[in-house]
Amino acid sequence: MANPSVHPVDERLPTGKLTALGLQHVLVMYAGAVAVPLIVGRALKLSPEQVAMLISADLFCCGLVTLIQSLGATQWFGIKLPVMMGVTFASVAPMVAMANSLPGVEGAGLIFGSIIGAGVISILIAPIVSRMLRFFPPVVTGTIIAVIGISLMRIGINWIFGNPFGPTAPSVVNPEHAKWLADVGSMANAAVTPAAGASAPAASVVPAIPKGLALVGSVPNPKYAQMPHIIIASIVLVSILLIAKYAKGFIANISVLLGIILGGVIATMAGLMTFEKVAKAGWFDLVLPFEIATPVFDPILILTMTLVMIVVMIESTGMFLALGDMTGRKIDQKALAAGLRTDGLGTLIGGIFNTFPYTSFSQNVGLVGVTGVKSRFVCVAGGIILIVLGLLPKMAALVESLPTFVLGGAGLVMFGMVAATGIRILGGVDYKGNRNNLFIVAISIGIGMIPLIAPNFKQWMPHNIHPLIESGILLASISAVALNLYFNGARGDGSDAVEAAKQADAH
Fold first, then answer.
1. How many Å apart are CA 162 and CA 482, to the nearest integer?
2. Which of 120, 260, 370, 404 supports an S-S bond with 159, CB 3.0-4.6 Å?
3. Strand partners, 85
């Protein structure tokens, strides 16, 4: 029986119930939590072993930051509410852009350096950001979240069919053309480099091959859009939809995870998924700082990630206030600043352990409403489970072994839900009484699409600002905030933003 003198948020439930409810929270967020290391790791072209390390470190940091946020750490950190922390999808586009410009360990160092720098700045500016909610009404947050989802959809689609570049590109170089170029190169080299003992070379009728000359793909790639891959991705998608419609409660909440598991089973039966890497992975290993790359601190990249974190913390502000309303615990300015500082601290910890920026997972906030369990110690239990999972390399290797087309079917749902959440928030915006809101949404989404539609738009701009402008999410955020200030000013007390946060189901 609950103690009436103890607030429901501070209620300590029996260990068995805590464990079961904590596992429930972990399963709800698991698919979203492991998606980001898979996206960024493969964009960086890291080895499978390094991607598995990213996954382990990510789960470990998810758990560690969840403990700090739910339990509290001194008066400066922790909202002390039932909050699960995970990687924010808002950071994916800038990180993928960095990875595409410089893949490998060098690019990873730049990403982790920008995350550490943004984490430190976020800790310092958290009290200021906690007072900025009025600058982010639903017309702004809805637009930003919609652009995040639309930007991520490209990744999910490429997972199904194949990436635009690399071994799964739609087209490959014609073998006859490649042989011709190789033969021409050999002839040019032979003309200027005579055999031993030969007289001086005659003038070559074949000019030297220009440095960097390459042929473009002109014939269809048999590895692109293979029918078995499309069929399995479709099965994953359909299974998620069936579970979401016909299952109830908790099972419906983990439909994405169950769809991925089913897809993995089918891929294994079809011989398209193997477990050699799982067999080689150890049962236990520590997660250590800077295990993949040493951070490199670039001011422009740090600024880019800081702008992302401001958007993330604004979203967290609405989420914390909404959660306070749901649990019956009043969130004052001090508590709000402590929660936002933890977003910054989690991001700093993520960079140190070579992972990503962290924020509250909104689907878990929704689960609090579904279950009616308000105890923050449920999320503490979830955090401990995540830490344990992060220390099991075999679990990370299993996730890394999943074929991309399996993840693609789920990615359409995960990333599409982000876009749909933004659209749903925008559905509550007043357009009849204030038609200027139409301009804010229309122009900001258009600007956010520039890097997607015209990725080379920045080629004649100063190279130093490329990281700042190649993220559609950042461009849309800046545009939406600026246009809202221009048309509407900074009115309101943030209550409409809280209502918008209550509608968010996906990060």
1. 37
2. 404
3. 360
